[in-house]
Amino acid sequence: MASLCIKNIPEHVHARLKEQALRNRRSLNQEIVLLLEDAVSGAAGRRPDADDVLAAALASRKRCRGMLSDRELAQARRTGRA
Q1: Cα 18 to Cα 39: distance, rounded to the nearest angstrom
Q2: Quick check: pTM over 0.70?
Q3: What's the CA gap between 69 and 16, in Å, rounded?
Q4: Distance between CA 12 and CA 19 in Å, rounded?
Q5: Is the distance from CB of 47 to CB of 38 less than 8 angstroms?
Q6: pLDDT given at position 57
Q7: pLDDT at residue 44 in the model
Q8: What are the residues whose beta carbons fall under 8 Å from the beta carbon of 25, sequence distance 6 or more?
Q9: Residue 43: per-residue pLDDT
C-alpha cells in the first residue's frame, strides 16, 4: 500500500478531521483514507457519519414508542436467542 505525506494542513482543518474521526470511531488516518476514497470515487457526501446514524435511530425509536413495551422487547430478544 502506498504512503502519502500531506504538509501545511491548517490547524482548523486538522482539528475538524480529528473530531470527525473520533465521532466515527476511526483513527485519523482511517478517516482521511475514507474521505479521499469518497472524493475520488464521486461518492462524497453519501456515507453517513455517526451523528447521522444516531439521529436516524433516535427518530425511529421515537416513532415506535408505545408500540412495544420493554417487557415485550425483552421477551422477543430471549425468544430469538433460544
Answers
A1: 18
A2: no
A3: 40
A4: 11
A5: yes
A6: 80
A7: 58
A8: 50
A9: 62
Nearest to residue 33, comparing CAs of 19, 9, 17?
Answer: 17
pLDDT at 66: 65
- The domain in which residue 46 lies consists of 11-81
Rounded to whole angstroms, the Cα distance separating 54 from 65 reads: 16
19: three-class secondary structure by DSSP? helix
Contact (Cβ atoms closer than 8 angstroms) between residue 39 and residue 64: no
**What sign does the dihedral 64-70-71-77 (CA atoms) show?**
positive
Instruction: Please name the residue that has the C-alpha cell 453517513.
Output: 48
**pLDDT reported for residue 30:** 94
8 A C-beta contact, residue 17 and residue 31: yes
The count of structural domains within the chain is 1
Residue 3 lies in a domain: no
Spans in the chain with pLDDT lower than 70: 43-47, 66, 80-82
